[in-house]
Write a structure and sequence with these properties.
Helix content: 25-40%
Order of helices and strands: HHHHEEEHEEE
Shape: globular
Strand order of the largest sheet: 1-2-3-5-4-6
Number of domains: 1
Structural class: alpha+beta
Oligomer: single chain
Strand content: 15-25%
Largest sheet: 6 strands, mixed
Number of strands: 6
Amino acid sequence: MQTIMNRLEYWIKAQTQYRVHSPFVFEMYRKVLFAHVDEETFRVFVAQLPSDEGADSRDRRYLETVYKMQDYYGLQMLCFDRDEAVMEGGLLESVKVVCRPHRYRARELRWMAQQGNAKYNVSIDMFDVGVLFYNPKMHRQKFILR
């Protein structure tokens, strides 16, 4: 089934770190999303996840994003499954990481609804992974990043 945003359209719309004007997103882009992952601690993190969920190697980018967000911001995991992880704590009141938001049309429509939800005021779409933030100090913004 065709999704609304295909990968080519994503690459045309996506921005790099040099076109991001939000200091928060720029810092997260450089220090979290593209930070080096220590394989040993990452394996320990994955081993601690529920055994029947999320250990699929196809979802490595999703798992790495959850790991890096939790590690960098000191977040506590509230809920985790193959499709979504919800965390809170630190400077950020709530963070949701979504696995493959453009995989199926129904999932993409759900992703679009979550982006419009008043509960989250910053969304970052990286095609294979989506991240939603809630912090009352941030303005409502949507980013599409490579």
